TrEMBL record:
Keywords for this protein: Membrane, Transmembrane, Transmembrane helix
Entry-linked InterPro entries: MFS_trans_sf, PucC, PucC-rel
Organism listed in the record: Pannonibacter tanglangensis
Keyword Lipid biosynthesis: no
Subcellular location: Membrane
The name this protein goes by in its record: MFS transporter
Membrane topology qualifier: Multi-pass membrane protein
Keyword Iron: no
Predominant cellular place of this UniProt entry's protein: membrane
Segments traversing the membrane: 37-54, 66-88, 108-130, 142-167, 179-198, 210-230, 261-278, 298-317, 329-348, 354-377, 389-413, 433-454
Stated family: Belongs to the PucC family.
UniProt-listed Gene3D superfamilies: MFS general substrate transporter like domains (1.20.1250.20)
């Protein structure tokens, strides 16, 4: 009897330890065990690799190593923004998909994976042609690079939107915040792994190595997506029957807009996402051109940003579990962003790489708090809409704002530098850093505007009743 009692106490102890040291263990359920959730989350790892490649490594390589114009690089890398508004369409189409096979999400994950693979497969050759074209029309390099980025962007947005909707479909409603946390963390894990991988392989840059790295990424991402969606969605022909009634996109949007505060929240998401992302295409070139850092050193900036975002995610989770308001968590991230961009600005005149690294990590910290707060707010207020339209609306606004900010960041940097070089801004500002610093100051202004938009959402009219703690994310991590 004493031995059985000791065994029971030991089992109870291990169960508590498991929930403490494996914070996502209770995200699983009887129908969706943890190994299945982790396998599904691989599509987020795939998306993380592509994001680092497009927004981190390639913009530095094109601008510094290949000598391509910043404005042209901004336009090419911002091309995936053309697909961002379609996230709303992708989500709604997967909600209302008609098929005799009985799948709603899997066809969109598969098609998105194929488009992404095709774009990455042709991308290195298009980029090298863009840099040193000797044959054919002059527009061929830009057209090839544009096509590669367009296919990759369309594929990534489609697969990610359908994957997030599938994840919310297959888990019970009370588990969804935990599953969203897991998916978000896996995205950051993918970004940190990719950042380390690219920094090691591209330390000694060579065109052949660039081809190998990008095409290796193409193979890796499609393998991860196939593993992620394998036997995840149950076939239900009745749910995708041609004869069933479906809601049109306009009606679905009207339903979504009737949620209190939905439009104001989306405006805040747009402004805040643009503010935190406008420097993405400039941060690594800024380190290389102004602070004299190598490719490996600047690529690690993405890893620091992802680590900061993960820390912000854990902080947001702990705050929400203790009853904090989602909009206040988002506003806290905006305030941290103000200090982060100030550190990045001061790194140039002070010549401090350490301050630059700290600023990059703090940008991730503030961005993580902002993303988590607004994402959960969007899920919380959308009680009338299907998961596809909810995920699609939030993702479309966020991705569109990020893409446009990337484009504007490069154009503004070039325009300001051109004025500074020709003496239009005075002798004191006649430096290569002026254009970069102008963009960082603009981001600070956008963050103040975002705070003004978020303010009314913290009022009682948008928050009826007491705030209840939610079981979410990394709040149970030890320490």
């Amino acid at each position: 009897m004493m031995l059985q009692s000791a065994n029971r106490r030991m089992v109870a102890l291990w169960q508590k330890a498991g929930l403490r040291f494996m914070p996502f263990a209770d995200a699983a359920s009887a129908d969706v065990p943890l190994p299945r959730l982790l396998r599904l989350a691989l599509f987020q790892v795939s998306a993380g690799w592509v994001m680092v490649l497009l927004n981190g490594t390639l913009n530095r390589v094109l601008i510094v190593e290949l000598g391509v114009s910043v404005a042209l690089v901004s336009m090419v890398i911002a091309i995936p923004v053309l697909a961002a508004p379609l996230r709303l369409v992708f989500g709604h189409r997967s909600d209302t998909y008609r098929s005799v096979l009985g799948w709603r999400r899997v066809p969109y994950i598969w098609l998105g994976s194929l488009l992404q693979f095709g774009g990455l497969a042709i991308m290195p050759f298009a980029l090298l042609l863009l840099q040193s074209q000797t044959l054919g029309p002059s527009w061929a390099g830009a057209a090839g690079a544009g096509l590669a980025f367009l296919l990759t962007g369309f594929g990534m947005h489609m697969a990610q939107t359908a994957g997030l909707a599938l994840a919310t479909d297959i888990v019970p409603e009370e588990k969804r915040p935990r599953v969203v946390a897991l998916l978000y963390v896996m995205l950051l894990v993918g970004m940190m792994a990719a950042s380390l991988f690219y920094s090691l392989l591209l330390t000694d840059f060579a065109p052949v190595r660039l081809i190998q790295v990008i095409q290796g990424t193409a193979v890796l991402t499609i393998v991860l997506n196939v593993i992620a969606m394998w036997k995840q969605e149950a076939r239900d022909p009745a749910r995708t029957a041609h004869a069933r009634d479906t809601q049109r996109l306009g009606a679905a949007l009207a339903t979504y807009r009737r949620n209190p505060g939905a439009l104001r929240l989306l405006v805040a998401v747009a402004i805040g996402s643009a503010a935190f992302s406008m420097q993405d295409i400039l941060l690594e070139p800024y380190g290389g051109e102004i602070l004299g850092m190598s490719v490996g050193e600047t690529t690690l900036l993405t890893g620091l940003w992802a680590a900061g975002t993960l820390a912000g995610f854990a902080w947001a989770a702990r705050s929400l579990n203790h009853g904090a308001q989602m909009y206040r968590v988002a506003a806290r991230g905006v305030l941290i962003g103000l200090g982060a961009f100030s550190a990045v600005i001061l790194a140039s005149p002070l010549g401090l790489q350490g301050l630059f690294y700290a600023g990059a990590a703090a940008v991730g910290l503030g961005g993580g708090l902002f993303a988590v707060g607004t994402m959960l707010a969007a899920m919380g207020i959308s009680v009338r809409s299907d998961s596809g339209i909810v995920v699609g609306a939030w993702g479309a606004v966020q991705a569109t704002a990020i893409g446009l900010s990337l484009l504007l960041g490069g154009l503004i940097k070039n325009a300001v530098n051109a004025m500074a070089v020709h003496g239009g801004l005075g002798v004191a500002l006649d430096t290569p850093a002026t254009g970069y610093l102008a963009v960082y100051h603009l981001e600070i202004g956008l963050l103040f505007l975002c705070l003004a938009v978020l303010g009314p959402l913290t009022g009682r009219s948008y928050n009826q009743g007491p705030t209840t703690p939610m079981r979410f994310g990394l709040a149970d991590m030890p320490g």
